[in-house]
Write a structure and sequence with these properties.
Layout (H helix, E strand, L loop, with lengths): L3 E7 L6 H9 L7 E6 L6 H12 L4 E5 L6 H11 L4 E5 L4 E2 L3 H11 L5 E9 L5 E2 L22 E4 L15 E4 H10 L6 H11 L3 E12 L21 H18 L2 H6 L2 H23 L2 H16 L10 H15 L1
Parallel strand pairs: 1-2, 1-4, 2-3, 6-10
Antiparallel strand pairs: 4-9, 5-10, 6-7, 6-9, 8-10
Helix pairs in contact: 5-6, 7-9, 9-10
Length: about 325
């Protein structure tokens, strides 16, 4: 039986963190190790976590507060470094794990030796823990994150192109091998959310899977660190120049990873065409913003519309207001 480590981060989460800790305690297959890093919370989160550990007399749970605020991506990276298990699970402070989560995921890893990262489906819950009903858009699965249909209970093996448009599931649903986590820590530029980039690493190794069964209650509330920001475009709704550059750097990181020989050798003809359009899109958008070219913006619009309307193509989930914001940025600069 593999050793399972939980990497958990906290920040100003006093409202929900106890419920999450209780759901870890209720696992039918208890974790072998829990590492929790607090990113200098200004509320009662550290006291709640420390008290929970002491009251339950856990010797395999470790909690510490960072010397300085690192931000959620770097904080998860530091938590990963402190784990020692062969399998690593990522835990947010405000969700609820279903009791059989670790038991089921460990079994699937044992049954599929090539598995490097496993993502599951999830349920949306509100601030009170009540279920929120959602319906997948046509041709998509997992609340629209997966660019293909998924049958309930189905285990699917995914490839690198399936992740081009965004992550396939939030990090709270993930389990990965130590090898994949190490590959991420060695190569990351931290331009992408850690969970998305870890999945990309797993796909490069040929071991990315998705299990279409909800094992987590994903809480939606006003204080989420990034909410369900699985595509970098959703980070930048304010339209600031710095946020737009952040999106471009994230897309360029995906392109960099896509040039790995393991990816290019496995691509189908259709996937190669989609990837080529993706590269062209990113290249033109950078030129558009740097040169403040309305002509280039119009060309992007022509490329964007057909790909955006085809829900089955894993293409950046750019919203209309994102490209509209690009146009406003260009016009303001020209004035």
């Amino acid at each position: 039986m593999a050793k399972i480590s939980v990497a958990m981060t906290t920040y100003n989460g006093e409202k929900f963190v106890l419920r999450q800790l209780q759901s870890l305690l209720a696992q039918t297959r208890p974790p072998d190790e829990v590492v929790i890093l607090d990113d200098r919370s200004a509320d009662g989160t550290p006291n709640i976590v420390q008290s929970f550990i002491e009251q339950n007399r856990f010797v395999n749970w470790r909690f510490s507060v960072n010397g300085q605020n690192l931000g959620f991506i770097r904080n998860f990276g530091e938590a990963i470094k402190l784990t020692s298990g062969e399998l690593i699970v990522f835990c947010d402070q405000d969700d609820v794990w279903y009791p059989e989560k670790l038991e089921i995921m460990e079994r699937l890893f044992a049954e599929h030796p090539d598995m490097q990262a496993l993502n599951t489906s999830f349920d949306f819950i509100d601030g009170d823990g009540k279920s929120i009903y959602t319906k997948d858009s046509r041709g998509r699965g997992n609340h629209g994150l997966l660019h293909q249909k998924a049958v309930s209970g189905e285990l699917k093996k995914l490839s690198f192109p399936d992740l081009m448009g965004g992550n396939i599931s939030p990090g709270c649903t993930m389990m990965c091998t130590r090898e994949t986590a190490a590959a991420y820590l060695t190569n990351t530029d931290r331009e992408l959310p850690h969970d998305w980039e870890i999945n990309l690493c797993a796909a490069l190794a040929g071991g990315l899977y998705f299990y279409n069964r909800p094992l987590v209650g994903y809480r939606i509330h006003g204080d989420n660190a990034i909410g369900l920001a699985t595509a970098p475009e959703k980070w930048q709704m304010t339209g600031t120049a710095s946020s737009r550059q952040k999106v471009l750097r994230a897309h360029e990181q995906i392109i960099k990873l896509s040039e790995d020989p393991r990816v290019t050798a496995a691509l189908t003809r259709r996937q190669k065409r989609t990837l080529a359009k993706f590269k062209n899109f990113v290249k033109m958008r950078r030129r558009c913003l740097e040169k403040h070219s309305i002509f280039t913006w119009l060309r992007i619009w022509g490329l964007y519309i057909p790909l955006r309307l085809n829900k089955s193509v894993p293409f950046p989930d750019v919203r209309l207001r994102t490209l509209g914001g690009d146009l406003v940025t260009i016009i303001k600069k020209e004035k």
